[in-house]
Structure formats: C-alpha cells, structure tokens
Design a protein that fits this description.
The structure holds two protein chains of two kinds.
Chain A lengths: L1 H26 L8 H6 L3 E2 L6 E2 L2 H32 L2 H16 L2 H20 L7 H25 L3 H9 L4 H12 L1 H17 L2 H6 L17 H8 L8 H32 L1
Antiparallel strand pairs in A: 1-2
Chain B lengths: L8 H34 L5 H5 L2 E2 L4 E2 L2 H32 L4 H15 L2 H15 L6 H25 L3 H9 L4 H30 L2 H4 L21 H10 L6 H32 L3
Antiparallel strand pairs in B: 1-2
Helix pairs in contact in B: 1-11, 3-6, 3-8, 4-6, 5-6, 6-8, 7-8, 8-11, 10-11
Classes of the chains: A mainly alpha, B mainly alpha.
C-alpha cells in the first residue's frame, strides 16, 4: 500500500510530462515543412487548400480578442460579486449565493454554447444589425460568465484571508464598511485577486465547446469584436475530426496544442506564484 | 463641498452596496435563466420513450438511451481509475510527504493539470491512448483521458478532507502502536470520507459534462446500439447535444432541449448532492 501511495503522489508530475511529451512528439513534425516562426506569424490558415497554409496568427489573435473581451466584462462583475459575497452577505444568504455560483461553474460548456447559440446570438445580431450573431463579442459574453465563478471564488478566498485586525483597525478609525473594502481590503487582497484573474484567463483561453459554437469560426484576422473569429481551441476541436492521421494538418493541430499548453502553463504558474506570495 | 445624495460616506456606502448587488445579479441571472429556459423548452420532450429508446430518423426522433448509457460507462471507467489514484496522491501529500522541493513540484503539476485546456486533453488522449497505446476510439481511451483531467479535482478535495481531520486523531493512533498506513486507514480516512465523496461527485459531474476531451477519443456520431465492451466507441450526452445543435439541420426543439435538459439535470443533481453532503457533514461532525 505504501508504495502505491508514493507512486500515486508522483503520478501528477508524470502526467504533465506525458502530455507535454506527446504534444511535442506529434507537433514537432509540422516543423519539418513549416518553420516555427512561419507557423506563429503566418497570416493565413488554409489547412486543406493546395498547397496548405499553416499560419496560426489569425487563431492566436482570435483567442486574444475573445479573451480580452471576456475579461473586460468578467473582471469588474466578478470582483464586485466577490466583495458582496465576502463582506456584505451574511448567513444563509451567503451560503446560497456561493452555492449558486458553484452551479454556474458546473453547467457543461456545451450547454452554455447551445444557449449562447440559440438565445444570445440572435439577440446580438438584432442589437447591432449584423448579418450573423456568431461573433467575437458573443463569444466574449459567453466566456465572461464561464470565467466569473473561478474569479469570484478565488477573489472571495483572498478577501476572507485578510486578517481581521485590518478590518477592525479601519472601522475603529471611523471608516465605513465600503471605505474599508476599497481602501484596505482591496490592496491587501491584491495578490490573490491577480491570481484569480490569471486563473480566469486560463479558463477562458482553454474553453473550447462554447466558444466553437458561438464565435462563427472564421479564420481571418478580425478587425472588430462584431466579426466572427476562430480561436486556437475551436480550431483543434473543429478540424481534428476531418484530418488524416499522420498528415501535416494533423501535426499542425498538435502544434496548436503546444501553443495552448505553453500559454496555460505560464498563466497557471503565474497564478500559483501570486497565491503563494499572498500566503507568505 | 459635496452636495445632495452622496454627501455622506454612509450614503456613498449604500450606493456602492447597491452596485455590488447589481453586479452579482448580472452574474447570477444566466444560471437561473438557463435552468428555467431548459426546463420550459425541454420538459415537453422528456418522455419515457425519450429516455429509453435509440435515436431514429437521423436522430430527429426516438430517444437518447445510448448516449445516457455511454456517459454512464465513461464516468464509471473514469472513477475506477481516478478515485484510487487521486485519493492515494492526496494521502501522500497530506500524510506522508514532508514539505520539500518535490512536493512543490507535485503541487505545481496538479495546478497545471487543472489548467490544461480540455481540448488539449483530447489531443493527448488521441496521441497517447488512442494511437500510441492502440486502444482505438473507445470507452477505455476516453475514460482514461477523463480520469487524468478529473484527477486535480479529486486530489484537491481529498487533501482538504484529510487535513480537516484533527492531528490528535493521528497521535492517538500512533500512541496505540499503529504504523503510518494503519493510522491513515483507521484514524484519518473514515473521517475524511464525506469530503472524499464530495470530491468524487464533483469529478463525476465535470467528466459527465465535458465534450472536448472525448471528441477524438470515444465519441460516436451515431451508434444506435449499446457498446459491447470497453474497446467500443460510444455515444455520449454532451457530444450528442453538440451534434444535434450544430451538425444536423431541422432537429425538433424538444429533442435538442430535451437532451440538454437531461445533461444539465444530471450535472446539477450531482452538484446539489455534493453541496448537501458537505453541509450535512459540517453540521454533524463532532470535532
């Protein structure tokens, strides 16, 4: 038993290494035909034309657009919600709010994508008089709600972890609860809040199904939030089913996987760094 | 001098609190809306036949039984792998390892597993389980992929549960001459069980709803029979919903919404169960 416990303890490291290794093993074969620089900076992604073109820049920019859009919506709403739950709500209501946020996090992304497609997209189309409602903005709005539970719960933890004495000191000096919140608690919880936002970014960049269903999937470099875009994740999910295993297209999708893995690795590492700084 | 409504800090506080409330309402509205809308549009389609029949007429009629069974098989397979592995890993971190550089690396690995995009798990499952280990597009490949994805949830929940068991329980076990493993088995694990159960349920809920990791590892577009072995592909609820919503024209709304309602219902029930177990445990524990 003891040996099993020890092996299991180290299994997580093994899995992370395996994931990275297998992404590299398949993805690196693309770079026999396309240089890494041409892959990252190429402006056209036409994997099935002849000759095929594997420029991932439109996809990277698509992911950036949707992610930034989602953050602009999600961060203020989530911070406000977290402050309300942590500092204003009390007792049973607080528990109910926390549970509802957990439920939001639990709704499968394909369901959120489905609702985004059938309810949100027509609404966006009418509101902005667009030919299609499947745009970067629709994706950003959808993803904002998917990132919110992550940002809220980690921010709330960070606020709750601020020592009681800080609050008591501020209140004793005659500050109102609101003044205490934004003058004392906000700066004190800042590292935790940064970590929360980082993890939110990780969630948004990696989100696949919902974003594939609501962003319209056009692999062109977007010039506005009201255009269809295609993200890194959606490209893999949408195209892998149609590739020939062992073709350049197949390897190119693994190369996109490497890009995603590296981005989320950095984002999560930063988040972890900030969380630890807070604890110290 | 400030005038009017915002003259006093107290008035500004009232205004600020209302803004916070509005922000929270905007975040919570979609949950309530999605649930209400699903029930409204999906409930008419939920007949006994829908739950127990195979899809017919190009999936526009009939039921979703193979998809339900596929998801159940997948989730059971996932748990068989991830639960022992996750619980043991948590025991190692909480009861065996001393904080060191290695435990830092393990924790960083867990954080990373939790952060890897679901579609990247799909790629990994395809490259490793389907192709390299030659499991093919199968329940086995999908369950293993989902197991690795769910591992961080189970480890984190279990470790938290283990750490909430008071140190005195461990000291008593040691004082009676227990070895470390005996101590863990008799003095710690039984009291951490509700927490572990909560983690397992949340892992199941996550795995049942994920689509991207199973796209290339299990999912069958249309398979009007039940899988015969773990090396068969299978239909699953989330992928079936994706197919109905995006790949097939003119599916009646009650079929699509019915499928979505079954999936959401399953996931929400699992999460409510986890919430209730946790609340019950907090109320009744005696230390």
């Amino acid at each position: 038993m003891e040996i099993l416990v020890r092996i299991s303890g180290f299994a997580s490291i093994l899995f992370v290494a395996l994931i990275f290794l297998f992404l590299i093993k398949e993805g690196i074969r693309l770079f026999g035909t396309v240089t890494p620089w041409a892959f990252l900076s190429g402006r056209s992604w036409y994997p099935i034309s002849t000759p095929p073109q594997f420029g991932a820049l439109p996809l990277i920019i698509g992911s950036l657009y949707v992610t930034l859009g989602a953050l602009v919506i999600a961060v203020p709403l989530s911070l406000a919600s977290a402050f309300y739950i942590a500092e204003v709500a009390r007792g049973a209501r607080k528990e109910l709010l926390k549970s509802t946020i957990e439920l939001l996090a639990a709704i499968p992304s394909v369901v959120i994508g489905f609702i985004g497609m059938t309810v949100l997209a027509p609404w966006v189309r009418q509101l902005f008089h667009l030919p299609t409602g499947l745009t970067a903005l629709t994706g950003a709005m959808t993803l904002a709600f998917m990132a919110a539970p992550t940002i809220i719960s980690i921010t709330e933890d960070a606020i709750t972890a601020v020592p009681r004495a800080y609050r008591e000191g501020a209140l004793a000096l005659g500050a109102t609860r609101w003044q205490t919140m934004y003058r004392i608690l906000l700066p004190a919880a800042a590292p935790g809040i940064v970590a929360a936002v980082m993890l939110g970014i990780g969630r948004v960049i990696g989100e696949t199904m919902a974003v594939m269903m609501v962003t319209g999937n056009a692999s062109v470099i977007p010039t506005s939030l009201l255009q269809p875009v295609r993200t890194l994740t959606a490209t893999i999910a949408a195209e892998m089913g149609e590739t020939v295993r062992g073709s350049d297209h197949y390897y190119a999708l693994f190369a996109i996987g490497i890009v995603l893995f590296v981005i989320t690795f950095i984002v999560n590492w930063c988040a972890d760094f900030f969380l630890h700084r807070e604890r110290r | 001098m400030r005038q009017g409504l915002l003259a006093s800090p107290q008035a500004r506080e009232r205004l600020a609190f209302w803004l916070l409330r509005i922000a929270l309402a905007i975040v919570l509205f979609p949950v309530l809306f999605i649930l209400a809308y699903m029930v409204m549009r999906g409930a008419p389609g939920l007949t006994w036949e829908f739950l127990t029949a195979v899809p017919r007429s190009g999936m526009r009629a009939g039921g979703i039984f193979p998809a339900i069974i596929g998801t159940v098989y997948l989730v059971i397979g996932m748990l068989l792998v991830a639960l022992p592995l996750g619980v043991f890993a948590a025991i190692y971190l909480s009861e065996y390892a001393h904080p060191s550089r290695w435990t830092r690396v393990i924790r960083l690995a867990i954080v990373n597993l939790a952060g890897v995009p679901s579609v990247v798990y799909g790629l990994f499952g395809l490259g490793f389980f389907v192709m390299f280990l030659r499991l093919g597009t199968s329940i086995a490949a999908g369950a293993l992929t989902l197991a690795i994805m769910s591992l961080p949830i189970i480890i984190t929940a279990t470790e938290e549960a283990l750490r909430s068991v008071p140190a005195s329980f461990r000291q008593v076990a040691y004082s009676l001459g227990a070895t470390r493993w005996q101590m863990v088995r008799t003095a710690v694990l039984p009291y951490a069980l509700p927490g572990i159960l909560t983690g397992a349920i949340l892992g199941v809920s996550r795995a049942a709803g994920e689509t991207a990791p199973i796209l290339f590892t299990v999912a069958a577009f249309y398979l009007p029979r039940l899988p015969q072995s773990i090396f068969d592909p299978a239909m699953t609820l989330p992928y079936h919903l994706y197919v109905l919503a995006t790949q097939i024209p003119n599916v009646p709304a009650r079929v699509t919404y019915g499928t979505a309602l079954v999936l959401v219902g399953l996931v929400i029930l699992l999460n409510l169960a986890a919430i209730i177990i946790r609340a019950h445990f907090r109320r009744t524990r005696q230390w």
